[in-house]
Design brief:
The structure is a single chain. The chain is α/β, with parallel strands linked by helices and 543 residues long. The chain contains 18 helices and 21 strands. The strands form four sheets. Strands 1, 2, 3, 4, 5, 18, 19, 20 and 21 form a nine-stranded mixed β-sheet that branches. A six-stranded parallel β-sheet has the order 9-10-11-12-13-17, sandwiched between helices. A three-stranded parallel β-sheet has the order 6-7-8. Helix 13 packs across helix 14. It is globular.
Length: 543
């Protein structure tokens, strides 16, 4: 489109180094936006717009996609989603095992009663599709999309029992998958380390994926074991993809525990071989040497049968505690023993506890807490779960930095925070969190791209934008291209960096100046712009 004085746009981003998301080198040019979409990429010196952003000297890229977000509730508590908005994230993908529906009445009640009383949210939805539309209707700063949680499906149809689903229960789950795929879900997401998902055989997951396949669904999974059985569990994901006919992605690819660190090369070889054979296999990662999950996840899955209340009842029984302790001390096969993978309490950091009287333990290592309580470390582990009557959010230091650097360079690697988006204010400050909540994407671009030079900036942007958007089959997302939705981030490659640490995690990243979502600025000059232009983004079956 030629430049002309009478051209009018709603927004022009002027003079930036524009990365289109393809991995190609940038070009200095302008981006013109009309409504929610990119209209022109080219010289617009004579054109005018209601809003203009001077991007001289800055990188201009498609908005970043968080492939593993847990912001489904935190976005309702802080609709700005500041922790991620300040990193340039414009689309958050949910559904690691659990999703915001479909719920039975009992599941809905449990979801409502489990809300943090200091940051309450009314659960008005029953299905995942209803949740997506509800969140869009109330107004949030970023776009959202979701997989259907395989755990949610299993609880809906089977409950918390350690058994195979019956034929009728499988029919129920398949019908739920079809309903949610038609409502816009992306596919099936699993988290197989945790009960009751742990109880599901491979064949059950294949059947769920087959139900999603006609709608263009994908499969994404927290592997059943990221430690001793890492290779076998990668093979399970490959089998599910092959037999169901859907693309598959490995959530937060890692090798947990020092003895397992060398296995990463074998995993890479397997994925490379599958991709060379035409199989659509990808992965995502976060950029830290500690993972984070529940302290209760260090208790073997068999003691979780019946759900959280049943586990707490077992922990109230001294004889059962002794049995659980022996299992943690001795069991190393058939489930992922996080206590042993972390090599003990010195490498286990308690991040967040629900009850006020227990918050004195936040920010301390399990070894320190054991000394405070006069207990053995495993006894202290069980005592914390019993006292808080919650998951107890915990960081486990068990990942090799050399593997992190190796994975960053893989062309089939996307990125995800594996965290809610937090705000460094209000009730959020009563809890601690993993620094990835504030820093994962800025850490990639600052530390690993600029400082260590492991990946060219254009390639890193591709894997934050076009690569995941294409994998998911998203409609007109992930590129700076005419006709695509105007999700755009303006940042300074020379200064972008994370500041959050495990000791002081509640710190925003810096270096992202402007973020545009669906054509509307949501962040200007590093500060929230007052708009909530986020939308529900649907998979192929919901369009």
């Amino acid at each position: 489109m030629p430049d002309a004085p009478d051209q009018r746009f709603d927004l022009i981003i002027r003079g930036g180094n524009v990365y289109d998301g393809s991995g190609a080198d940038p070009r200095v040019t302008d981006v013109g936006v009309v409504g929610d979409s990119i209209a022109v990429i080219g010289g617009l010196a004579a054109a005018r717009a209601g809003t203009e952003i001077d991007a001289t000297g800055m990188a201009v890229a498609p908005g970043f996609i968080n492939m593993l977000s847990h912001s489904y509730i935190s976005m309702l508590q802080d609709r700005r989603s500041l922790g991620e908005l300040k990193q340039g994230v414009t689309l958050q993908i949910f559904g690691e095992g659990n999703s915001m529906g479909p719920y039975t009445p009992e599941m809905h009640s449990a979801m409502q009663s489990g809300m943090d009383p200091e940051m309450p949210v009314e659960v008005t939805w029953r299905t995942l599709g209803e949740y997506l539309r509800h969140t869009e209707a109330i107004g949030v700063s970023q776009n959202i999309a979701s997989y259907i949680g395989a755990t949610t499906l299993r609880i809906h149809a089977v409950g918390h029992d350690d058994r195979h689903a019956t034929a009728a229960e499988m029919d129920t789950m398949r019908a739920l998958v079809r309903d949610e795929m038609e409502a816009g879900a992306l596919g099936i997401g699993s988290s197989l380390i945790y009960p009751p998902a742990f109880y599901a055989p491979t064949e059950e997951l294949i059947e769920l994926c087959r139900a999603a396949a006609p709608y263009g669904g994908c499969y994404i999974s927290h592997l059943r074991d990221e430690g001793n059985r890492l290779i076998e569990c990668v093979d399970e994901l490959l089998r599910i993809s092959r037999e169901s006919g859907v693309p598959a992605e490995i959530y937060h690819l890692k090798a947990g525990g020092q003895a397992n660190w060398p296995k990463m090369e074998r995993v890479i070889e397997r994925v490379d071989a599958a991709r060379a054979a035409g199989e659509p296999i990808t992965a995502d990662m976060y950029l830290y040497t500690a993972g984070a999950t529940a302290l209760s996840a260090a208790i073997p899955p068999r003691f979780h049968e019946g759900g959280a209340r049943a586990l707490l009842e077992r922990l109230a029984d001294p004889a059962m505690r002794a049995t659980i302790k022996r299992a943690i001390e001795t069991a190393d096969d058939g489930w992922e023993n996080l206590y042993r993978r972390a090599a003990g309490g010195e490498n286990i950091l308690i991040m967040s506890m629900r009850r006020e009287e227990n918050r004195r333990f936040q920010g301390k290592r399990l070894s320190q807490i054991a000394a405070m309580l006069g207990l053995d470390e495993i006894d202290a582990l069980m005592e914390l779960v019993a006292r808080d009557r919650s998951r107890v959010e915990t960081a486990y230091f068990m990942i090799d930095e050399a593997n992190v650097r190796r994975e960053v360079q893989l062309p089939w690697m996307a990125f995800g925070s594996d965290s809610p988006s937090w705000a460094a204010e209000g009730a959020f400050l009563k809890h601690s969190t993993h620094p990835r909540a504030y820093g994962n994407f800025a850490r990639l671009l600052g530390r690993y791209v600029r400082d260590l030079g492991l990946v060219p900036l254009a390639e890193a942007i591709r894997r934050l934008t076009r690569f995941p958007a294409d994998n998911l089959g998203l409609d007109r997302r992930g590129r700076i291209e005419a006709g695509y939705f105007a999700d755009v981030v303006v940042f300074d490659p020379a200064t972008i960096i994370d500041h959050a640490t495990f000791e002081e995690p509640q710190q925003y990243a810096t270096g992202v100046r402007d973020v545009v979502v669906n054509g509307t600025p949501a962040l200007r000059d590093g500060e929230f712009a007052g708009a909530y232009p986020g939308r529900a983004v649907f998979g192929r079956g919901g369009r």
